[in-house]
Design a protein that fits this description.
Elements (H helix, E strand, L loop, with lengths): L3 E4 L1 H13 L3 H17 L7 E4 L2 E6 L2 E8 L4 E9 L9
Parallel strand pairs: 1-5
Antiparallel strand pairs: 2-3, 3-4, 4-5
Length: about 90
C-alpha cells in the first residue's frame, strides 16, 4: 500500500452508527473496506471528486466519504462519512 488511511474519530464514530443502523451490515463493511483499499493504493483516483488542494470525496455505495491527503506523511485522513442519500448530520 502506498498510503496509510486513518479514520478521524468523528468519522469512525459515524461509521459505527451507520453500521449499527444498517439493514445489511455486510454492505456497509464491504464499502468501508473498499474505501480503505482504494484510498490506500491511490487517493488520486479518477472516481474521487477533488474538492480542493489535497481534499476529495469518494463514493463506494452505500457509503461516501470526504478525505484529506497528506503527501508528505503519505496519509489519507477520512474526515466524514455518510450513507448515500443522507445528509452528514442525519441519522441513518
Amino acid at each position: 500500500m502506498n498510503y496509510f488511511v486513518e479514520w478521524r474519530a468523528a468519522a469512525h464514530e459515524r461509521l459505527e452508527q451507520i453500521w449499527m443502523a444498517a439493514a445489511d451490515r455486510r454492505d456497509v463493511l464491504r464499502a468501508a473496506n473498499r474505501l480503505d483499499y482504494l484510498l490506500a493504493n491511490n487517493p488520486h483516483l479518477d472516481e474521487a471528486t477533488q474538492l480542493g488542494e489535497g481534499e476529495g470525496k469518494l463514493i463506494v455505495e452505500p457509503l461516501a466519504v470526504d478525505f484529506k491527503l497528506s503527501e508528505t506523511e503519505r496519509k489519507v485522513f477520512i474526515t466524514s462519512v455518510w450513507m448515500i442519500g443522507h445528509l452528514h448530520d442525519d441519522e441513518p
